[in-house]
Structure formats: structure tokens, C-alpha cells
Write a structure and sequence with these properties.
The chain is α+β, with helices and mostly antiparallel strands and about 180 residues long. Helix content is about 30%, strand content about 25%. The chain has a domain of about 90 residues.
Length: about 180
Amino acid sequence: MLLVLVLISIMLALAWPALGRLSTRQQLVQSGELARIRLMAARVHAIEQGLPYQFRFEPGGQRYCILPGDSSAEPAGDSGGGAVQLPVASGKLPGRVTFDDLETGTMGGGMIPQPRFSALPDARDLAIVSWSPPIVFQADGTGPDQTITLTDPQESRSVVIALRGLTGGVIVSDKP
């Protein structure tokens, strides 16, 4: 009985690193799919609401948000007799996965005023984040050609999310 337990322990010790890499890879793939779904959600909101919607992420961090409008200014939302509450969303990537830092010289990001996040419970936390420049989807569903890289810093593995602006298609693939 003791011999069997020793053999099982040895086998587990040999298999443990491979299982850890598999788990890390799965988190990276899951994060890529989550970002793909959120980009598509921003596009769908733009089409449904008939106005531009933006997707932003925290360079070097895990947060992302979806907001109406194409700038950091508060969009007009009055229809009939009162203000219309437009959909907004935010979230974080799972595990240790982060969005890559922006390339040197990239302009247009920064902080977003807290009132833009007023419908979200973590509005204060989101207002102090330095966001990427917006990826804006127009009311017809078009957007920019864009790539976003997600990385697991401990494993040095990455996936690339490629957005096709004209069709709105989003493809997740391993970084070459």
C-alpha cells in the first residue's frame, strides 16, 4: 500500500508542471474569448442604440469598459421627457492575464470622468484608471482595424485579438 502511494506521489509530482501550464494556457484563451465577446457587445450596442459606442482597456492592467459616445465627453441622452440611461459595462480579465501596454507614442487615452460610470457599482475605481484610446464602433457597426494583445506575464505567453473594422469580425489567435 505504501509503495502504491509513493508511486502515485511521484507521478503527480512529474505531471504537476504540465497541468499548471495547461491551466495557464486555458486562462489566456478564456481571457481572449472574453475580450472578443466584449468587443462584439460594444458593436451590438452601437447598432442597437444607433450611436457610437467605445471599448477601452487598461494598458498593463486587467480592466475594460464599454461606454456610449466616441469621446470622454458625456453624450446627450434626452428623448421625449427625460434622460435615457444608455447601457454601460465594465469588467476584469480572469487570472493573471493583462492587456499589453500601449506602444510608445500612442495618444488619446487617459482618465474618464466618474459620471460616465454612474450606472456601475465600481464607478470610483473606474474613474481613476488611465484608459487606452477608445476603439469606437459607429452606429452602422463599423469600427477601426485594431489589434489588442493579452499576456500572462509569468508564463510569457500571449494571444492577439484582431478586429476587422469594416465587418466587425473579431479573431483571437496565438501571438506569433
